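Quick one, probably user error.
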């Protein structure tokens, strides 16, 4: 039997459930998941296996109206994911329906070359009644000629296997692109930084949504099989440093503990995690920070 392999881009508004669906398809946590909008910054590739098919999932940043350089670079990365993909899946939240953001995405899709393969996945179907779901499906398919429509709950798993099997069958014949045991093509350093950033995002709620980034500065493999990981949390202002540290360092300690535990589970071994908080006033304008996040600094100018 011949093998298949290809790329699937997930697009949609912020918080539509793209990261949750990526993790569900892969069967492991490779993408940051929080209740915050817009937490996926880079195009994270998860690798899912189904039968003889390897599906490389590009979890793009959410599509929204960009205002700053970082926003513009993130939106450019999302549409870049569509251009590179064999199939694109547009994810819509069932209970929110056709928002102005969804309308903007549909407008852009209409302008794309007709050979692009676009499927629709209506997510969070457990939040609406069947008649409302049917009406939404008809409205979306009238607005764009989707190749297939799937009803799913990424969080609970409903309908996800059906979507996965369809994607697997539609991948082009090809040798596998990644080793069988690899679930993401991000370097471990970036995955580790994303895990810490997720914990910070959850802990700090509305206080610092965009104004921090985490970088893995050093990674030392120790003789006893454990790893020492040193990370720096960059914030944009002095006042933010105090918020991240917390009273007597309580916040950063709690974040470090949660991140270390998740890293140990992910790596299957002991981890010694050391976090520092530093102020970098203009990190949002530094080319190196964008490279770390897998974004193109030049796209921020567009």
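Nope, works fine. Designed sequence:
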């Amino acid at each position: 039997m011949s093998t298949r392999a290809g790329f699937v881009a997930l697009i949609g508004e912020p918080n539509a459930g793209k990261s949750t669906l990526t993790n569900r398809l892969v069967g492991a946590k490779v993408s940051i998941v929080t209740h915050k909008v817009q937490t996926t910054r880079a195009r994270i590739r998860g690798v899912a296996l189904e039968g003889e098919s390897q599906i490389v999932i590009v979890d793009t940043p959410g599509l929204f109206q960009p205002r700053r350089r970082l926003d513009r670079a993130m939106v450019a990365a999302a549409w870049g994911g569509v251009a590179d993909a064999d199939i694109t899946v547009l994810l819509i939240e069932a209970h929110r329906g056709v928002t102005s953001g969804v309308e903007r995405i549909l407008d852009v899709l209409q302008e794309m070359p007709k050979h692009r393969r676009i499927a629709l996945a209506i997510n969070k179907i457990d939040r609406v009644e069947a008649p409302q779901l049917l009406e939404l499906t008809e409205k979306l398919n009238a607005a764009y000629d989707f190749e297939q429509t799937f009803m799913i709950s990424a969080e609970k798993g409903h309908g996800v296997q059906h979507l996965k099997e369809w994607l697997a069958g539609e991948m082009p014949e090809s040798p596998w692109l990644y080793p069988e045991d690899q679930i993401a093509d991000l370097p471990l350093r970036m995955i580790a930084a994303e895990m810490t950033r997720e914990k910070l995002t959850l802990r700090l709620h509305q206080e610092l949504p965009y104004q921090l980034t985490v970088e893995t500065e050093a990674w030392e493999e120790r003789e006893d099989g454990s790893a020492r990981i040193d990370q720096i949390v960059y914030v944009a202002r002095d006042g933010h440093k105090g918020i991240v540290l917390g009273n007597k360092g309580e916040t950063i300690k709690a974040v470090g503990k949660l991140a270390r535990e998740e890293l140990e589970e992910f790596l299957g071994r002991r981890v010694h995690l050391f976090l520092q908080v530093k102020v970098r006033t203009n990190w949002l304008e530094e080319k190196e920070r964008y490279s770390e996040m897998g974004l193109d600094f030049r796209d921020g100018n567009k």
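The longest strand covers residues 212-221.
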